[in-house]
Write a structure and sequence with these properties.
Blueprint lengths: L2 E2 L5 E6 L3 H12 L4 E5 L16 E2 L8 H4 L14 E2 L26 H11 L24 E4 L5 H11 L3 E5 L1 E8 L6 E8 L4 E11 L3 H14 L18 E11 L5 H4 L2 E2 L5 E4 L1 E2 L2 H7 L4 E6 L11 H13 L6 H4 L9 H10 L1 H16 L15 E9 L7 E5 L7 E5 L4 H21 L2 E5 L3 H11 L33 E3 L14 H17 L4
Helix pairs in contact: 1-14, 3-14, 8-10, 8-11, 10-11, 12-13
Length: 537
């Protein structure tokens, strides 16, 4: 028989201490509820989730290794998070005929209050995500008023460790891995969670309400294990659980040339009144997306490929030659990720440096300073006199029920997760059409133009070759007003259970153009308020 983790029955048990789990736990604690927060890792640990190590990824070219994409420990994946905070757009919640399986049971307005809460938890500033750009032509087919913000304290485990340790209403238990859920006799409630601690002892913890917040894949895995014991749950083999697995398409296929090179200052990183970093992006209004039937997409300026001296930047050329001299292992990823494989043109780099040796020296100085600084959150970005930059994109992936995770194996105790994740031609074609619309809008406004790196007939393959995710882990337990089409309802309660909820990117029905952390924390705050209002002591 399992040993009980104390005799107390908590109001809420939260499984997982990543950004969403911490938000639910701390908000419930602030509301006066007794909370048990279980985390498989330790305070300072930042290791892959052990329960996912045996997972089989069918296409490793499209899905990142789970040793890279998952993290145990207080703070979860925030230990390696880049801090990018971006809200979803109104269009992301709508049913769009050209995006199969789109539509949320809630709207953006239902989350406005909780987006403010998310901005506070993630420390990205309260100045909002829409900042009108002055002296830029107004166009109905292009938006330059939206920004992404960077968290000033992205390591949430470090930030909240002391508060968790001293809270009178919240008990944190580290190195407690939840292995299974224990269902009561009625079959519609979770009675306890079964835990393995660091000594491998089998213990249980009881609560009135349970919240799974242990990452998109691990949260899904716990539900799939439940389904192995009760195959009819969640719609059975043909149900939504484990299906519609999504991420984002990211990469660069073109150079953006600004007609006025000084306009780069508008799209470089800046600080707001409270010294939070933000960056302006190009996006396409919902009317444009609906008219052209394309998925949501965002663009931003990045460093040009350093290996190509046509960028004309003495700073970039000096950094590139420095990389060649020092080798990739001695420089940060931010630098060598920009180093392409085209044939070297050393003379071109030397000409750039000789044309502006002061800029070349400044580039090396900036690179060294960036390398030596440990608390700088702003990504490395170099301006250049020609106004030419790599155009990076971050695009929505269409929900596809074929993209699926499931448990394989004859026995539940020996089964492992199988991940079938891929991108479609429709995903890539939408990216290409988005570039074409942006190029047309820039040319008509006289503000710039795009130059593609490959001919038209090769761009589809180029986008698909770059497409890779597995970090965002969206959609495997989607939200729906219909039990036949989803896993959780609009309050993130798992269908078929009275007291089981999810705080995870797994509940997103669509992926949008935004990184998912900000919305996951907003939804977690909304869930905590629901639990407060419906608490039974």
């Amino acid at each position: 028989m399992n040993q009980l983790l104390g005799e107390e029955i908590f109001d809420v048990c939260v499984v997982g201490a990543g950004p969403a789990g911490l938000t639910v736990a701390l908000e419930c604690e602030a509301a006066g509820l007794s909370v048990l927060l279980l985390e498989a890792g330790d305070v300072g640990s930042s290791v892959p989730v052990p329960a996912l190590r045996a997972a089989h990824i069918l296409d490793t070219a499209r899905h990142a290794s789970l040793d890279v994409a998952t993290r145990n420990g207080l703070g979860g994946t925030s230990a390696v998070w880049g801090g990018r905070c971006v809200p979803f757009d109104d269009v992301d919640f709508q049913v769009r005929p050209f995006v199969p399986h789109s539509g949320w049971p809630i709207a953006q307005r239902d989350l406005d209050r909780w987006c403010l809460k998310a901005a506070d938890y993630l420390q990205c500033g309260d100045s909002g995500f829409v900042l009108p750009l002055e002296n830029w032509p107004n166009r109905s087919d292009l938006c330059v008023d939206t920004v992404e913000r960077l968290s000033s304290h992205p390591r949430l485990g470090q930030r909240f460790a002391e508060k968790l340790r001293t809270s009178p209403k919240l008990k944190l238990r580290l190195e407690h891995l939840v292995a299974d859920l224990e269902i009561d006799e009625s079959g519609d409630s979770v009675r306890a969670v079964k835990i393995k601690d660091k000594s491998s002892s089998q213990i249980s913890a009881r609560a009135r309400t349970f919240v799974l917040a242990c990452g998109g894949l691990h949260t899904t895995r716990l539900l799939l294990k439940l389904q192995q014991m009760w195959p009819e749950r969640f719609g059975g083999e043909d149900g939504a659980l484990g299906r519609y697995y999504m991420g984002h398409l990211t990469g660069a296929i073109a150079t953006i040339s600004l007609q006025d090179p000084s306009d780069v200052r508008r799209f470089d990183y800046s600080r707001d009144k409270d010294h939070h970093w933000f960056r302006r992006r190009f996006t396409l209004p919902s009317t444009t997306q609906l008219q052209h039937q394309i998925c949501n997409i965002a663009f931003w300026l990045g460093n040009p490929p350093l290996h190509d001296p046509s960028h004309g930047s003495a700073a970039a050329s000096s950094i590139y030659l420095g990389i060649r001299t020092l080798g990739r292992k001695s420089v940060p990823t931010e630098f060598f990720a920009l180093h392409g494989d085209a044939s070297d043109q050393i003379r071109g780099h030397i000409r750039n440096i000789l044309a502006n040796p002061v800029d070349a020296g400044a580039g090396i100085a900036r690179a060294v300073a960036y390398r030596m600084t440990t608390d700088e959150l702003r990504p490395f970005f170099l301006r250049n006199r020609r106004g030419r930059y790599a155009l990076h994109y971050h695009s929505e992936q269409i929900p596809n029920p074929v993209n699926r995770v499931k448990m394989v194996g004859d026995e539940p105790c020996r089964s492992r997760m199988s991940i079938n994740f891929k991108f479609s031609e429709e995903d890539a074609l939408s990216v290409i059409r988005g570039h074409e619309i942006l190029d047309s809008a820039l040319r008509k406004s006289g503000k710039g133009y795009l130059t593609y790196w490959k001919p038209r007939e090769e761009r589809l393959e180029q986008v698909l070759e770059q497409a890779r995710d597995g970090y965002h882990q969206i959609g495997c337990a989607r939200m729906s007003d219909s039990e036949n089409k989803g896993v959780v309802d609009r309050d993130c309660r798992v269908y078929g259970f009275r007291n089981l909820y999810l705080a995870s990117t797994a509940v997103f029905p669509t992926s949008g153009q935004a990184n998912p952390t900000f919305l996951a924390v907003a939804l977690a705050g909304r869930l905590a308020d629901h639990l407060r209002r419906n608490a039974v002591h």
